[in-house]
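User: Okay, second chain of the day. Same drill as before: sequence in, structure tokens out.
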Amino acid sequence: MKLSGQIVWITDADSPGGKALLLRMAAEGASLLLGSDSGGRELESELAQVRQAGSQAFVYTIDDWRSAEVAQMLAEAAKELGPVDVLIHNRNLVRPISVENGEEDVFREVMNANAKSAFVCAKEAGKQMTAREAGKIIFVGSIHAEKPTGMSFAYSASKGAVKMLAREAAVTLGRHGIEVYSIELGPAEGDDDVFRSDLSGLYDSYRYKVPNAVLGTHEDLAELALFLASGEARYLNGTDIRMDGGFLLHYLDFKMKRPAATGGDAT
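Assistant: Same drill. Structure tokens below.
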């Protein structure tokens, strides 16, 4: 097993991506530290599968953008599981907000959830990893670190911050044997609703803007994260990996591949 004996910390395990991540990591022998805003209620089925696989799970509920709370939680988790080997930061809060008339409270909420928590979690996990001169930090980011959403500038700003945080962390934490990666995740099922915009047509017919007209899944994310968490990605420190099936290439305005039922591929 690729992660046997490893402790993997996954923030926001309640999300679809979080569930896919935790199941894949447990299948490879990892014990899990899981952030759950529901206190584990939304993870009952997944936790049963984790334990059936012979892995341990420590579930917590805190504000993971507050240093004191994160530090205390990690100290408690270390007593049960041990120190963290891999951090997968998976926060992905989207709130509609415009530059023209957005509220500061909404901006602060999104930045705290997505960007500040990334910094705090990396800092605190980095302390444990530095002590052992080894570790992996994987930030699940977004293509909107590069491409505006048209409906939430705060989301784009937060993911842009995470992208640069990953690069800075790779330089500094890399001196202690810690590898840092950023995954710029592209569209999945339902993202046309999540990023619905009166300003941008980016998500209009979005599945057909992927060159092969096949959207990615959270299981695809989990497979990439597993590769990065394993020893196979040793020489990729500081790497940004865009995982969008080629979605952002559509600005070239090629004809979209459409199923015959929608009128063929001549659009």
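The CA atoms of residues 126 and 172 lie 10 Å apart.

User: Thanks, on to the next one.
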